[in-house]
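INTERNAL AUDIT FORM
Audit reference: QA-55
Scope: verify that the stored structure record matches its stored sequence.
Auditor: D.O.
Record contents follow.
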Amino acid sequence: MRMQAWLATLALVSVTALADTAAEQAAKQAAAPAAVPAAAVPVPEEVIAPLPAIGSGPNGPFGYTMGYTLGQRIAADIKDLDVSAFQEGFNTAYTGGAGKLTDAQMQQVISQFQEQRMAQVKAEREQLAADNLIKANEFLAKNSKRKGVKKTPSGLQYEVLKKGAGPSPLPTDMVTAHYHGTLPDGTVFDSSRDGEPAQFPLNRVIAGWTEGVQMMNKGAKFKLFIPPQLGYGERGAGDSIGPNQALVFEVELIDFAAEPQEVPAGEAE
């Protein structure tokens, strides 16, 4: 049955994870070079309290560990599990008893649960997108009234922090820039400040970047306030950027050049 296979897989994963962790720790200890002779520095062993009496036999602690680990993994994904029904089904299957549901019924239950969960996630996502759009519009409306902030016809807002000199990049240019990206509340989701500047084709990033950086000269530093439609829109980006969130970027244009063109096969000298 698929449900039993799923539970067996989770159990196997749990055991494997515990075994792998122990093996990795042992390997690291064995591979670690000794700075001084081992006899010179006594290493205290980790003190583990005696195991309490669990279950009805010598494998009680192991059984408890399996149950606890499996419970942690399921709880991370399913918050409204009927634990009593789960225990009944588990005990029946483990002891070889006859199930109250047929394989077909179990598959139907799983499918219905998945459909309900997907609909719930979709509804929550849509509500979050609607709420974020309201917040983004409120933020941008207020921000547009600040001194020094300008707005383009597309809705992009920008503030010149430092002027540059010379020409501006084309959409097809390869751009080198430092950037610091935050949400309107100041939460940092990406930054190059602590590392090397980023390099990318200007026409292969979000629309707000493509438009904003084209207004900059080499050496300029702008602050871009990007509305959702010029950012990641309703899809968001990973766990850091939700649907319909406004974005704030400080961008320093270091350099740019025409992107190298690929030479078709057979034409290279």
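Auditor finding: record pair retrieved intact. Residues 2-32+44-100 form one domain.
Action required: none
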